[in-house]
Structure formats: structure tokens, C-alpha cells
Amino acid sequence: MTTASEHARPALAPAGSWRLPLGSARSGRSLLLDKRACVANLLLAAALWAACVASLCLGEVSITPRAAIAGLFGYGDFMDVFVVQELRWTRLLAGVLSGGAFALAGCLMQTLARNRLATPGIIGLDNGATAFAVASVLGVGLGIAPPAMALVGASVATAIAFGLAGGIGTQGYRFLVAGIGVGAAFDAITRLMLARSAIDAANAAYPWTVGSLNGVGALALNMLAIGLVIGLIGAAALARALGVVRFSEGVAQGLGIRVAHIRLGALVLSVGLTALAVAVAGPVGLIALIGPELARHLSSRRGVPLMGATLAGALLMVVADLAGRVLFSPIEIPVGLISTVVGAPVLLWILLRPGHKIGV
Amino acid sequence: MNGRPRIAAGAPQRRVRLWFALLCAATLLVCVASLLFGAGAIGPLDSLDTLIRALSGHTSDDNAWFTIESLRAPRTAIGVLVGAALAVAGALLQAVTRNPLAEPGLLGVSGGATFAVAIAIALGADAASLRVPVAQFGALAGCVAVLAASRVRGAGDDPVRLVLAGAVLSGLLYALTSLILLFDERTADEIRFWVVGSFAGRRPDDVIALLPGLAVAAVVVVGIARPLAALALGEHVASGLGHRPRLVRLLVVLAVALLVGSATAIAGPIAFIGLVAPFVARGLAGPDVRTTLWLCLPIGAVLTLGADVVSRLVVRPSELPLGVLTALIGAPVLVAVVRSRRLPTL
Amino acid sequence: MSFFYGRRRTPGLIVALALLLLAGTAHAARTLDTAYGDVEIDGTPERVVTLYEGALDSAVALGTTPLAAVATRGGDSVANYMHDHVPDIAIVGTARETNIEAVVAQRPDVILASSNLSEPQYRLLSKIAPTVVPKGSSFAADAWQNETRLFARALGREDKAEQLIEAFDARAEHIRAQLPAHTEAAVARWMPQGPIVMSSRIFAGRVLSAAGFETGNDGKIAANRPHSDPLSLENLDRIDSDWLFLATLNADGESALAKARTSPAFERLDVVQRDQVVPVDGQLWTSASGPLAANAILDDIARALGIAAQP
Fold it and tell me: Where is the Fe/B12 periplasmic-binding domain (chain C) (predicted)?
């Protein structure tokens, strides 16, 4: 192989890719960029930018894009500055970060389980994180902050779901149904806690049960931002290996990839990202399914569209939140309900499309 | 468990009868417990005393007798009826989709009933009067959706894929229900305590309102048990034996809609009974749907009424939502079913 | 609203006139002691937004017309009894969630909120306008009186608040004098699977005990749960008392009572046998608070018991 590439220098990129030389030409290091994936990511980024501007402008008070941008930096009318800086910017940030985190986590888990339906929400992680976070809000949880409790909950749910699925492997759908069972149990516990608490405390815990970006805490948001950066770096590091692992473990082992390490890494990232995102936005699990789906449709089938999925998830979350705020104003529809109403038909279509495999 | 269901059951017949008798005795026991225990001040000993005196003809109008006769007796009857109905509905649905995971709650049949009731109340219907037919209609719609999904090539062959589709459909229906509640505070208030499931405060009239639907369903079930068992051997075999698979499926959908609609109308959505009861029944007597159906009657009743008795005792002087309790029982069983080494296709 | 002036009509009027003069000469800056520390308010606020039913009630009773308020529990506008006072008030949220953008859009001078406003919400709102959050729990003994005093200070109408409270005390005293000793009362909402019993520490309970009723049901329902779970029907005798006020949020009271009477357990209660169940407006009895609500509840009580409402 080495000799082949020596002869081919200056190397030609495979069809449909760009080759970016890294460092000096002599070092021979280069980066292959998939053309279609690049275009797709640019498209998604542009759409996300447009959605973000719209999200800053629209709402109970409409603001022109120019005033919104000015307001973001503290110029202009007091009301515009306040609405943009204090309300919409935090909310937008929460939407972008949580949407990105949900979708990245979903994409990682789908790849790891080689199943397009294997998203954290479906196997009960969201419900586990929610149950623990609600326990924290209602004061059952020793006063630990909701994000930390969500992390614990997601880990517990994962451990149970994967532990139960251990005997049957991660392939096929059985472990998904085991996850549905785990999710149902955690959901029952959440409802039980809400039914047993005073009405004001139950109202405080309400956003946790439907998924809402209203009233996001600064701590949870900061933790999510850090988590997403770590997640993206980790995902970038894992991307190549995951791309091989998803085809065949045998080939991956042949190439010297330590499959077990890769899978564990992807799982840990996925669980962590989901938990942090739940701590900010509540259970909005379907984003984890639709985001990667959208990214996969836009980009080529060659790689694992981790970046594309992150962008798509952020886009979907921002758009869903914007729709929930604007459509029936002044009543606000929680983003969790919107994403279920839109996402469930997509999911059904994936499941029931005749004659299609559901592998990644 | 033998994967091939037997049309002619021979030797195990006696064992099945024994189990059936034992389970009926257990049902009776739970019924007595349901009459004896409650969230109120009338303890089990007082209740027993009153009950024995009543049996020997000495009824009185004191509090103990009132509690037993007017409060605990109707909910006992409802518990038995709802439990048996949900269990049989589960067994039917599992037989016709040939899928051991097909459960009315998981597959969106209960979700359809809940959604229909929410719409009816939002449109101004009084919660009490319209509920039964509306819930049955909603359950019918959910049922048709499930069956349509199971007929899609690919999804129908794969038991777990159907359940996933059902779970998604349920999620969608509950999200739509939540949307209605978000826009209509009056509906939200009326329905808030109904969606968690409960048997409390139902009157004898409410029970009587259920009976026509349940009776029709019972007749249908008796009629289709044999063709359904034949259908388990495959469509060709069933046709060869002179049954009409399409008609059988249609009747099953009707029966399930009647059963689940009635149960949901009076008790709210109660999950997992339709999964757990047939699972236990098959474990005891093998996969033949005719025996499963019989055994489901007492098993469903014991499970549901037992859960109700527990729900009264845990958080006295209030009561626990029943749907939560059945979900806590049912989720582990669901996991156990999928974990069983070879998922039997029925 | 003549009853607000009560017995001491003449001195009250003089004080009010003096107050008006004072208010005319620009109210002095004042410091309010609120749950989130001292809040400075200067002058007489004109654009008032209330995020709490008690605040809306107090503000209206004190003679201001708020621009916006939150919807009552279980409704999509302000409570029925407030409707005629503020026919075209803007709605900026529900009891569950405040729409802060809608609050900003009103450009308020002052925001009056409830004592359980969360700190993050407070921090946001206080950037829009001085936000007044009462100290202490809304279940405390003198909660509504203290809240009214605080809101009155915020609005620059302290003396009017004292008049309102004195007038209420006088009316309550008048009803108490006509009531037989040791008369018990309970407040509940009817649900088919059992009633939701209201703690005696919620607003309506406080008004009832001010009017001379014994409302000690704290032993019957758990502490810090002002709105209890549906009580098991087997324990229905816990709401048995001399008078039962049956609240309903939606249907009209009579039909709610008719529905409750179809339950044999309810029918057995002594209070039902004696026909002393009074259907009342749940928005007023189980959600509202403030001087107007207090007087409206006194009206309901007087009407039910067939006694004179005014001294």
C-alpha cells in the first residue's frame, strides 16, 4: 500500500472528495474531505444561521434583523436589547446546544448499534434522566443540581438497558424493546413523584416532563456547552474508526482498531451528551432520531455524518422552538410536543417503509 | 414452550383445567381482599365481621357495611371486568398479529381511546355520559392502525418492529392529547385525574353501561377462538380448514376495540395488563390461543384488582394512580419477554 | 364599593383626601422590603403588570388599573369575579408559566409578583422594572393583608390599604357575631374518584376563620400540601362539617353539586343530609386572593347563611 501511494504522488483524491494537504507537501499528510458532506454541512450551517436570526427577531415583540443584531451587542432601544440579550439569546443558545447534543448523541448511538432506531430517547435514557432531574427539582435527591442528577439518571438507565440487553447483543430490535420497558418504568416513577408533590412544586417540575426551553438555568447551559465541545472533539477522534466499525467488526479488527474501546467511547459520549441536553431542554428525544436522518439524506452514505447531524439537530431544535413560540402566541407550545408531533410520523415512515433495511 | 401450537390439545388439557380452577380461586381471594382492605378507617377485621354478618342475613346501615357495599364492591367488580377485558384484548391482538409483544397500551389502542375522549371533552361533551362509545371508537381507530402496520410487508414479520411502531404511535397520540390539554384548561382539569387510571368513585350504573359492549365482545371471542387458532398455523392452513382469515381479523379488531374502549372509558388508560396476562397464560398452558384466552380471564382480574388493592394501601388516606403501578409491574415483564432466548412468533 | 369605607366613613374620607393631595404632589421615593431584598420605587407607578392573582386583586382594590395579568388557574383569562373590574386587560401567561416577552411588551413601571416567583425569573423581571415579591409563604396567617400592604406601598397607596383591611375586619366581625359558636366549615373540590380538600391555610380558609368558622382540618391532610390529592372516598367523612363549600373551576356550581350528589358516599355525609353544601366559584375560592376576593367570599358566606352582609 505504501508503495502504491508513493507512486501516486501527487495523490489524487478519490472521486467525490477533496484532498487538503496538511503541513508541508513532503510530510504526505492530508485530509480527505467528502464534497457532498461539505456542501451539506455548509447548507445546514446556512439554514441554522437563518433560523437563529429568525429566532432572535420573531416572538411576542417583533424586532428587525438589524435591531436584533445591534441589540445583541447592547445597542438600540432598551426593550429590544433586553428581549434579545436576556430572553431570546439564552433561549437560542439553549436550543442550538441541546439540539446539537441530542442529535450527535443519537448519531453516535445509531452507529454504535448499527440501527437507525437506536437513539437514546427510545432506549429510555431521556426518561431516566428526567426521572432523576425531577427528583432533584422536587427535593427528593439530596439537593444535587438537576444536571448532575440527569447525568446519573441517564447512566443508570443506560446501564440497565444495556445490561438487560447484554445476553441478546446490541443488534436487532430486542434491546430497543428492553429500552422501551426501562423507559416505561422510569416514566411511571416520574409521574408518581409528580402526583405525590404539592401543586406549586409540580408546576416547577412541569418543563422537565414535556421538554421546554423556557427558563433555562445558567449552570446547566454552561455544562452543556462544555460537554458539547468535548463531545464534538471526541466524536471527531472516533469518526474514522466508527466509519469502519459500522460495516464489520472483523475488518475493523484487521485494521488494528480496538473495537471494544471505540464502542465504549462512543457510548460514554452519547450518554453524557444526552444527559446534559436533557438537563437543559427536558426529554426532546426525537431530535436525536430526526437530526441524523436529515443529515444522512443530505450527505453521502460514505461517512458517519457526525458534524452534519449536530448541525441538523441544532437547526431542528431552533425551528421547533420558534414554531412553538410564534404559532399560537401568547400560548407557548413546549418544544417537546412539537418535536413529537413532527417527528413521530417520520419515525413511523422509517419503520414501516416496505422492503427497507433499518441498518445505518 | 413448543413453537407450533397444537390444534388438538390432548394430555395437557387436565393441567390447564387445574390451573384455571386455581386461578379462579385466586381471583376470589383477591376479590375478598378488595372488599376487606381500603384507604379508610374500616379495617380488615371490621370488614370481615360485617361481611360475615351480611352473609348470614344481618345487614345494617352502618359505615362499615356502606363502605363495603357502595364503595368497595363496585370497584371490585370494575377491577375484575377491566382486568379480564384488557387481558383478553391483549391475547387476541397477540394472536392476530402473531406477535407476543402486541399489547393494546403499547400499540396505541389505549392511546386512541384517550385521544378520542380528550377531543370529546374539549368539544364540550360531559365527561361522564359520552365516554364509553367515544373511547370505543378511538380504540377502534387505534386498532385499525396497528393491524394496517402489521400487514405492511417487513414490519409484520418482525414482532419487535411492530412494537416500536406502536410505541411511536402511542407517543404521537399522547402528544396530541397534551396539545389539546394545553389549549383547553377546562378539559385539562376534567381529564387530569382520569389519565392516570383509577377505579375509585365509579357507580353501579357505570358498570352496567359497560356490559353490552363486553357481552358483544364475549360472543365474538367465543365465535372466533377456533379460527384464530387455525390462523396461527398460517393463512393457507386456515383457508384450507374453511376459515376466512380476513373476516377473522376484522372480528378480532372489533372485539379488541370493544374491550379496550370499555375498559379505558371506565378506568382510564391502564398499561401492560394485556402484555403480562397472556404472557403468564402462555407460560402456564402453552401457546394455543383457545386455552390462553380462558386463562387470561382470571389472570387479568387477579393482576388488575391486586394492583388496585395495593394502590389503596400505599399512601393512605389518599390513593395511588393505578396506571403507574401497572407500568411498574409490566415493564420488567416486557423486558423478560424480549430477553427470552427465542422470541416465539405465535 | 361603599363597604370599603365601613363604619368609620368620615375619618376614612378625610384620610383619603389627604392622601390624594399627597399623591398629587409626586410620591416620595420609598424602599420596599421584599423577598429578594430592598426594592426602590420612586413616584406613582402608572403602568402596572401583575403576575399573581392576589396582586391583580389588590391593585384593582387600591384603585389602579393594571395593564396586564396572568390567567387564573383552570381558565384562559382573569377570574370571573375580576372580569368586570378589568374588562380588557392583557393576558401575559398562565399560573404555570409567565410569558416574559409579553411582559416586556407592556413596558411596565412596576411588576407585582407572587411570593413563589423563582429567583432566575426575578432576576429577569427586575431588569424590566422594579419587581415586588412578597416575603414569606402565601399560606401564612396574615398573608393577604401583608401582601396588600406591600403592593399598596409599591403603588403609593398605603393608607388605602389600611382602609381596605379595616373594612374587611369590620365585615368579618359582623358575620362572626351572627354565627353560632363552634361552626365548622370545609372547602373542597369534587372529583369523581374523591374530593380534593383545601387546606385551612389557603386564602379562603383564612377568610372563613376570620368570619368565625372553625376550619382546623390541618390534621386531616398532610402539611405543606395546600391542594391535596383526591381523598379516598372511604375517608369522605373527613370533609364532613357544619358547612361544606364545594368549589368548581369550570362547570357552574349547581351542576357540580348535582354531579357530586350522584355519589352515594357524598350523599351520606351529614352536611349533605342537612342541605348545608354551598356550591361556590372555584376561581374565587381556591385560586384567588386579595381584598376584593375576601369581600366576595364574605358575600358568598352571608348569602349562604342568610345573614346580613353589611354592618
Answer: 47-309
Residue B198 in contact with partner chain C when CB distance is under 8 A:
yes
Write the ipTM. Answer: 0.75
Q: Which of A181, A341, A356 sits opposite B335 (nearest CB)?
A: A181
Question: Nearest Cβ partner of B200 from C71, C233, C238?
Answer: C233
- Quick check: is B4 in a domain? no
Record: contact A176-B164, CB cut-off 8 A: yes
Look at chain B and report how many structural domains it folds into.
1
Model pTM? 0.80
pLDDT in tens, C230-286: 677 777 777 788 888 888 766 566 677 777 777 778 888 888 888 888 888 888 888
Nearest CA-CA distance, residue C130 and chain A, Å: 15
Residue A79 belongs to domain with CATH number: 1.10.3470.10
Q: Which domain holds residue B219?
A: 82-339
Distances (CA, A) of A145 to A230, A278, A285, B25, C255: 21, 13, 21, 51, 46
Distance from CA of B274 to the nearest CA of A (A): 14
- Tell me if residue A206 falls in helix, strand or coil: helix
- A269-294 pLDDT, tens digit per residue, is 998 999 889 888 888 878 888 888 88
Contact list, B62 vs chain C (CB under 8 Å)? none
Burial of B301 (0-12, 13-18, 19+ CB in 10 A): buried
Give me the domains of chain C, ranges plus CATH numbers: 24-157 (3.40.50.1980), 168-305 (3.40.50.1980)
What's the number of domains chain A is made of? 1
Residue (of B117, B91, B85) closest to B103 by Cα position: B91
Q: Find the closest chain C residue to A198 by CA distance.
A: C225
Domain assignment present for residue B2? The answer is no
Domain residue limits at A165: 51-345
